[in-house]
Specification:
alpha/beta; Rossmann fold; single chain; 13 strands; 7-stranded mixed β-sheet; 31% strand; two-stranded antiparallel ribbon; 256 residues; binds S-adenosylmethionine
């Protein structure tokens, strides 16, 4: 199953708000956890050809370009790509589904993808396409949802947000109260920022690892990023939670 139509539509309709939010520095999870870890992993990209998969409104493409890379951004949402083109007229963007990557073999030195892989239910085709599009020795760096957090039972209200995964086992009645479902694969319907409906796929680590280990790419590194020190002053509770509980994970794969 690929990204569902209603999610693509949501992203397209939300393009302006998405860009404003991304550029405000107020997206705590991106700004103080995921991007610092992803950007710290970038090699010297001067003169390198880079593909940014699921580039949204183009902020990461601008960053990669500032490091001297020749960057192309692709995204499945027409609205986001249109906004990216308007924002960064000197950069190259295309509407493209990552499950149908269409490039000549060995086009890119480096492929980057931030928080996109959880929109598809199998990584097999995408990893094959990425392998084909990479030059030998090239790297695919991507971040995605961590199944420990997204397999939990999550709820939000005006005053709080919770994420619970665990159980209470009652010896007397031989019953258990189980909260969350880590092992069950499912589509999760969510609402972000109060008004942005979105769906993504939860899969346990064994399924994700199986896709990676059976792909032609080689896994060379893995990280569960923590919130960075600077987050303490901006959002102390986010900092505290994400010293102990992962929200995202990062994979680095290589083409031999
Ligand atoms: C959470 S946003 C991340 C955007 C950007 N990478 C960032 O971190 O700010 C996920 C992005 O993935 C894109 N996307 C979802 N499914 C996709 C697919 N099958 N192919 C390409 N892009 C996809 C969405 O349109 C959206 O721009």
């Amino acid at each position: 199953m690929s990204t569902d139509d209603s999610t693509i539509k949501s992203y397209s309709e939300y393009a302006e708000k998405w860009a404003t939010h991304m550029r405000s520095g107020k997206n705590i999870a991106h700004e103080y956890m995921e991007k610092p870890s992803m950007y710290a992993r970038l090699p010297d990209l001067k003169g390198r050809t880079v593909l940014c998969v699921g580039c949204g409104t183009g902020e990461e493409c601008a960053h990669l370009t500032s490091l001297g890379a020749k960057v192309m951004g692709i995204d499945i949402s027409e609205g986001l790509i249109e906004y990216a083109k308007k924002s960064y007229p000197n950069l190259e963007f295309h509407v493209m589904d990552m499950e149908k990557l269409d490039f000549p073999d060995a086009t890119f030195d480096f492929i980057y993808s931030s928080l996109v892989m959880h929109y598809i239910s199998s990584w097999e085709k995408t990893l094959q396409n990425i392998h084909r599009a990479l030059k030998p020795g090239g790297t695919f760096l991507f971040s995605t949802h961590h199944p420990v957090t997204y397999g939990a039972q999550r709820s939000r209200s005006e005053t709080e947000r919770s994420s619970m995964l665990g159980y209470t086992k009652h010896y007397d009645t031989h019953t258990a109260d189980v909260v969350g479902d880590y092992l069950g694969t499912r589509k999760i319907d969510d609402v972000w920022f109060g008004d942005f409906p979105i769906s993504y796929i939860h899969r346990p680590m064994q399924d994700l690892m199986r896709d990676i280990l059976s792909s032609p790419l080689t896994l060379v590194d893995f990280e569960e990023p923590k919130a960075i020190e600077k987050c303490k002053d901006v959002d102390p509770s986010f900092y505290e939670i994400h010293q102990k509980i992962p929200q995202f994970m990062i994979f680095e794969l290589k083409k031999n």
